[in-house]
Design a protein that fits this description.
The chain is an alpha+beta fold and about 725 residues long. Helices cover about 25% and strands about 20% of the residues. The longest helix is centred in the C-terminal third of the chain and has 14 residues, at about 500-510.
Amino acid sequence: MVVRQGVDDKAGFASNCDEMRHSHKNSNVMKDSRNLMCPTLNTGRTLAAAVALTLSPITYAMAAHPGGVGLEAAKAQVSALKTPAGLEATLFAAEPMVVNPANMDIDSRGRVWCTEGANYRVWQKWGKLRPEGERIVILEDSNGDGLADKATTFYQGHEVNAALGICVLGDKVIVSCSPNILVFTDANHDDKADGPPVKLFTGIKGVDHDHGAHAFVFGPDGKLYFNLGNEGHELRLPTGALVKDLAGNDVIANGKPYRQGLAFRCNLDGSGLETLGWNFRNNYELCVDSFGTVWQSDNDDDGNRGVRINYVMPFGNYGYVDEMTGAGWTDSWNKAKGKGVPESERGAYHWHLSDPGVVPNLLQTGNGSPTGIAVYEGTLLPKAFHNQLLHCDAGPKIVRAYPVENSGAGYSATSLDLITTEDNWFRPSDVCVAPDGSVFVADWNDAGVGGHNMADQKLENMTGRVYRVAPKGHHPTVPQVDLKSAAGAAAALQSPNQATRFLAWQALSAMGPKAESALKKLWNSPNPRMRARALGLLARLEKQGKGYVSAALKDKDANIRIVGLRSAHDLKLDLLGAVGQTVTDVSPQVRREAALALRHNTSAEAPVLWAKLAAQHEGKDRWYLEALGIAADGQEEAFFTAWLKATGDRWNTPGGRDIVWRIRSKQAPALLVKIIGDKATPAEARTRYIRSLDFIKGPEKDAALVELLTLPAP
């Protein structure tokens, strides 16, 4: 497994590389090495004058920017980007077309939409560098030569200052900018917002802070997914009332039950919100694959070599702070170090991975400043990148893929570089997939990260880049989209581009049964991801949907069975029957999904089904154990009782001890005492079981603690 530690800690400015994620910088620490390429960076228009006669108008505009680096220097900068054999990174756009690109999306026409960060941290000494407010800019390559030649300001105003998220969905544009989630409309398609935005959500904390609201994405179930970093704290309706999620909880990070960063799913109008995960630090952005599986990155407590990638198991706690007290991790880690615990265990302490109720990490990548993430479900890039996560990390100046493999009920991952460079001004902030399968990377373009700072503290000096990654010699194209016919919309549904898939999903959904034939062809394709996309719509057909879900539950592909379970849960299509069909599935990942589907299900059958799922836990799969724990939330007594009844005296096995350790039942403390008092229990394991008592309340726990005091010394 390749794990990158990011910029060398000794490099100074990078040891705390987080706080802007793509812009934090200190101009006093670094000199602009690009002066060697462009003497006019701080001295005026000499280069522009020299090349004015030979450049196209838009190219001249880039070169003439008073503080910019000029086209030739921009080309020199892109030439320093290293990609795998057969691929190349080319310049798509540079300043003044775009400066400090904070986030981006690509529409179905292949146009790049960027939010900008010229006014990032307006409370710092430089104030508002763009007094009229930030821009949302559309970058377009109208002649197909690979270089943007048209920039259109879609909207400008202080409502979008340093907005950290943009999602283009037809004539709607969702912009995430704490304290608000804003929705712009362009009904007449003139590339100008029709008027002021409306609020989808508000009340989010972390204003002008990169730990606030982040980008929305569209999922294969027709829903929206998004997240808040740990400065976001809460989510409110436009009326000002706290949002109450489908679990009945107020969405506020006050420990009742949620803490720190949050991840969500909701309907297109914001209704039906579910809190998918909590207790992240700065979960910068998330993405959703065609099976409906959610992935995201999360930043460590700066400089502690714990940046992580998460599979977001729904409704899980991800362990940044102590679940019960809200305490951080450093005190326990310092005590552990003092007792000789090796440095390799820092990550486990950092994310409280040894506590019951914490979902494991997919991968830890060391120091860094994680930013944009996407799933690459195209075929233009080499096969090694197909269906993999793409991720930007501004600190170590890198864009990676994370090849994922199944691991028990969860996943494992390694690291594969897509873009690397020694250029200290390369600060990738986002990655998106275009309609032709090429990959675009936004580059905030500054001297470093960390410290809520930036080197370019004058608007005229600000730079910004957008690059395109594709096979060498590949000519950029934009596939035509036909949304009037079911066959055309089904073809568009197969696009690697999210905005195109949204348009196709909407068109096919509106067609209803008339789209079934075209979708059925896709359902029968050999590509499981395309089948999953088709199922997302077929399952929603009023009369035929149940039949497709039933077929999915019997499918030979485990991922399709997972989509079947998710569809049955979301659409309330005989959920208990679906779980019953999969309760002994050969795939632990399918059984994981069956367990999660039982969460908060109060039927008499739910405890029995959970007991059958729990009986298959052998004590070796933390992912599976956490799925069982999440499923039992609020019904621990009924579920644990059913399991004990089915298990009898056989509970005292590795798998059974795991379940006792994880469950929050009042029956657990007495069993924990038995385990702790067992002479066969290793000393180091006793500490683990004692820790479990911290997560249980009531007289049963108190009695167990008293009994522990009477146990003979081991």
